[in-house]
Specification:
By secondary structure, the protein is an alpha/beta fold. The protein has three domains: 115 residues, Rossmann fold; 68 residues, no CATH class; 234 residues, Hypothetical protein af1432 (Orthogonal Bundle), CATH 1.10.3210.10. Helix content is 53%, strand content 12%. Helix 19 packs antiparallel against helix 20. The longest helix is centred in the middle third of the chain and has 21 residues. The site of one fe (ii) ion (FE2) has 5 residues, from loops. The site of one fe (ii) ion (FE2) has 6 residues, from loops.
């Protein structure tokens, strides 16, 4: 019988890890976790074996309705488990063809397991009760482990391959990964130690850097973690990160002095892991490319970082920040409200800022022009390449590049091909120089 494939959507990193591991360990399922509805939908659409969707809607009341409608439009059968703070208070369960709903209390894995059993999903009979299964992708980020690690030889026989605190643990593990190993095992009594190690790893990322001191945002561990990993993945140097960090600290501490601006920004960012990732990543990318171009005066760098944080705050659904253009696949999947949200957001971002800060002219045009395109098919003004300011061209290129590569790991590895593709479209007018710089930095 084929295994069930599960998409688990929750913006809490620790819950993601905990629930996915637990379900994979207990049942004959493979679980992939997502923070964003848009990413999950893309995965479900492209992966025909996904038949179970677990969606946390603890604080996401509006966008989940669109998500479910889009899910039903895929026209396959799904079991959808909604995780909510209070199952009694759920009023809206849509009737959608092919979709069966169950509602479960958030953070209650035992309840999810009951639903699985009710729907006949098989227990993982091949795993000894004494062990929990961990995916090697999850643990390969650690150098050493606070617990022993085992591999399974057959249904009953497990052998220890890494001793706890073995300083060569990561090297040993890599050998097994190279041989195609997907899972390792820990003794069940040590599972909580594993969770602690994950927690410490994630929080150390958060505390590691000066951004965390400037940008004290609750629940954003995952965003910052994701951004660092991605930046390392595309080869951004430690030096570039430090340069951008410095500028970011100056900008954020200036924002902080303006109480109403700071309130607006932190509300928007706290509301959305996605927007935080997007803003941080663009700050790093735009600062790095500006340096490469020699456009590294303090005022230029500051404007680029300011625009990175402010350009999309007018979006009601922050996940739509990934939309690059009107003719992209994502755009074609939107309903009318979402289309309006996308097309109006550059103007709305400006309007939101009008009341809280005086915008320097360059910053205003960066925000307004960030969706213009060289062929005049962008919005809102349909400007052509010669009429878009060079700084906006730099910003647009960084955003398009980031939105393309951050979609999945495959794209990150294919960044050279993505840059080649972008060259065809952007090698004109004021885009030319920043494009060349982007390729020099990331096309290696
Ligand atoms: Fe945007
Ligand atoms: Fe954006």
């Amino acid at each position: 019988m084929s295994r069930n494939r599960v998409a688990y959507i929750d913006d809490d990193l620790l819950s993601q890890k905990f629930v996915s591991n637990k379900l994979d360990s207990e049942f004959e399922v493979d679980t992939t976790a997502f923070s964003s509805n848009v990413e999950a939908l893309r995965y479900i659409n492209n992966t025909s074996s996904v038949n179970i969707v677990i969606l946390s809607i603890k604080d996401n009341n509006e966008s989940f309705k669109n998500f479910l409608e889009n899910l039903a439009n895929i026209h396959r059968e799904f079991l959808v488990i909604l995780l909510v703070d209070n199952p009694e208070s759920v009023e809206y369960i849509p009737k959608l063809k092919g979709v069966t709903f169950e509602v479960v209390q958030y953070n209650n894995v035992a309840e999810i397991e009951k639903v699985f059993q009710h729907f006949g999903i098989l227990k993982n009979s091949t795993i000894d009760d004494k062990y929990d299964k961990l995916s090697v992708d999850e643990i390969s980020r650690f150098d050493s482990f606070a617990f022993d690690i085992f591999i399974r030889i057959n249904e009953r026989k497990y052998i220890k391959v890494i001793n706890k605190s073995d300083s060569f643990g990561a090297i040993t593990l890599k050998k097994y990964i190279d041989k195609g190993l997907q899972y390792v095992f820990v003794e069940r009594s040590n599972y909580s130690m594993y969770i602690n190690q994950v927690y410490e790893d994630v929080t150390s990322f958060y505390e590691y850097d000066c951004i965390s001191s400037s940008l004290k945002l609750d629940g954003q561990l995952q965003s910052i973690d994701f951004v660092y990993r991605s930046l390392q993945g595309i080869g951004l140097s430690q030096k570039s990160i430090e340069i951008a960090n410095k500028t970011m600290n100056i900008v954020l501490s200036d924002f902080k002095k303006n109480k109403s601006l700071w309130k607006l920004l932190t509300e928007k960012l706290n509301d959305s892991n996605y927007l935080t990732q997007h803003s941080l990543s663009l700050s790093y990318l735009t600062s790095t490319v500006a340096h490469e171009l020699g456009w590294n005066t303090r005022s230029t760098l500051e404007k680029l970082v300011m625009a990175s944080f402010l350009h999309d705050i007018g979006l009601n659904n922050h996940e739509l920040a990934i939309i690059n253009s009107f003719d992209s696949e994502d755009f074609l999947m939107l309903n009318q409200d979402e289309v309006d949200d996308v097309t109006e957001h550059p103007m709305r971002s400006l309007e939101l800022l009008e009341g809280v800060m005086e915008l320097p002219p360059n910053l205003e045009s960066l925000i307004l022009e960030h969706h213009e395109r060289p062929d005049g098919k962008g919005f809102p003004r349909k400007k052509r390449s010669g009429r878009i300011s060079p700084m906006s061209c730099l910003f647009i290129l960084c955003e398009v590049f980031w939105n393309k590569i951050s979609r999945d790991e495959k794209n990150m590895l294919n960044r050279k091909a993505i840059l080649r593709q972008m060259s065809k479209e952007y090698d004109q007018g004021n885009f030319r120089k920043p494009l060349e710089a982007l390729i020099r930095v990331f096309g290696k």
